[in-house]
Amino acid sequence: MTRLKDLAIEAHGGLQRWRQFDNVSADLVQGGVLWELKGQPHTLERTTVTVGLKEEWASHAPFGADGRRSRFTPGRVALEADDGTALDELLQPRASFAGHTLQTPWNELQLAYFAGCAMWTYLNVPFVLAWPGVESEELEPWQTEGGDWRRLAVRFPANIATHSPVQTLYFDGDGLLKRHDYDVEIAGNTPGAHLVSNYEEVSGIKFPTRRRIFARQPDGSFSRDPLVVSIDLSNIRLG
Question: pTM for the whole thing?
């Protein structure tokens, strides 16, 4: 049986093809109860995100009003004018979430950090499995009405900023990602079940364009109400 890590990477376009690009951009429409809960209901409702493929960085533009954009890296998050001038910044941003729960509001820099590390992770999966220090191990299959999904437990090294050090990826028989589980550490370790669908192929790489995130229960089940986050992607381009 093909190693699940290798099957998944090939199913999404292959590592050789992926490594020809430096970044990916997509237009986003986002919804769900999380944004209002965090006191940021409209800032990133409609925006464009760009993430790095060889280094961990992300930018959302526009970021709210006044032509601003965000710039996220693991050690720094900033809000910039369209000419790149830094308007505000936060160093070691993850430390600012200490003691947070799901209900704790975010300021704009914290929102930029969350959105940056989340979209960087989502758009780099499954190719991030080939990054140095990322470890994976296949788990028992997950039964669904449409057949079994193979599961991969993934452990991220400390130098990668992502939701949690350990995450679980679910793949169908063709090796395409169907679900992504994690605990959002910076929101009180809130457990999420992230379903993906509606694949499109762009420059030889397959991307899911519909993402729906729900609250995950200890047994792995989830309810579709409330919808925690919705993300719809369009106009995906690799550069």
Answer: 0.96
